[in-house]
Amino acid sequence: MNYDTSIFWKWFQDNAEQLTMLSEYDEATQDQLLDQMQAQLEKYCPALTFDMSEPNSDGRRVVFSAEGDVDFFEPLLKLTDEAPDLDWWEFIPFKQPSGKDVKVRFDKYTFDTKKMYFEPLETAEEPDILGLRVAFDGADNDNEDMLVGTYSTIEALIGEFDCATLLGYFEICPVPQTPEKEGLKPLAELPAFVEWFKRQREK
Q1: Residues 89-113: pLDDT tens digits?
Q2: For residue 173, is it within any domain?
Q3: What range defines the domain where residue 59 resides?
Q4: Strand pairing partners for 105?
Q5: In 3-state terms, what secondary structure has residue 107?
Q6: How distant is the alpha carbon of residue 51 from its chain centre?
Q7: Do 78 and 19 reside in the same domain of the chain?
């Protein structure tokens, strides 16, 4: 498919002043502008979403996402590569890592990296693909909401791109009584492990 970014970026430039001042409008007007932006984005590629930051001394930034779907990484990168150079705006592809201490809420569950552990799972058939066993209290591998929440937590730790391109599979389980003795590491250490894994893969 031939993705044309020009229509979206023309709309954005035409509305950049309003979007810059977004927080000064009432909630209904803010929602209307953001809905319009999402509609324009979907005209370009229906799989993409965005998240707009609050303003700071450097302005605002917009993070565009393909929601982890590698089939749409190409149009995502094309969109940000062809972004106009606008003062007070920064355009970033992919959800970025949120730090080591992360709390994710999904459905009725809260996922706190301070209370979670992981163990890498490797197979000889796919040495370049990362597998993970993630442990936390009450984990049930048959609970779809827990699996989705765990994936979202992993994504928040290592970012959308690495999560989509490196993580081949994962499972969840309850935390054993002595997790470190059984080879599990605090989940907050996952970003450092992923960087090590990437270096090993490149050798």
Answers
A1: 999 999 999 988 999 999 999 999 9
A2: yes
A3: 6-93
A4: 110
A5: coil
A6: 10
A7: yes
Structure tokens at 153: 């937590």
The pair of structure tokens assigned to 12 is 């954005």
Is 98 part of a structural domain of the chain? no
Those residues with Cβ within 8 angstroms of residue 149's Cβ, 6 or more apart along the chain or in another chain: 104, 105, 106, 107, 109, 111
Q: Give CB contacts under 8 A, 24+ apart, made by 181-186.
A: 183/119, 184/117, 184/118, 184/119, 184/133, 184/135, 185/117, 185/118, 185/119, 186/113, 186/114, 186/116, 186/117, 186/118
The reported pTM is: 0.89
Do 197 and 136 share a structural domain?
A: yes
Q: In terms of domains, do 61 and 112 share one?
A: no
- Cα 130 to Cα 166: distance, rounded to the nearest angstrom: 6
Q: Are 88 and 134 part of one and the same domain?
A: no
Instruction: Please identify, among 93, 119, 152, the residue that sits at the C-terminal boundary of a domain.
Output: 93
Q: In angstroms, rounded to a whole number, what is the distance separating the alpha carbons of residues 39 and 23?
A: 20
| Residue 71 forms part of a structural domain | yes
116 and 56 co-located in one domain: no
The stretch 143-154 carries a mean pLDDT of: 97
Calpha distance 43→37 (Å, rounded): 10
Residue 190 and residue 114 in contact, taking contact as beta carbons nearer than 8 Å? no
What is the pLDDT at residue 122?
Answer: 80
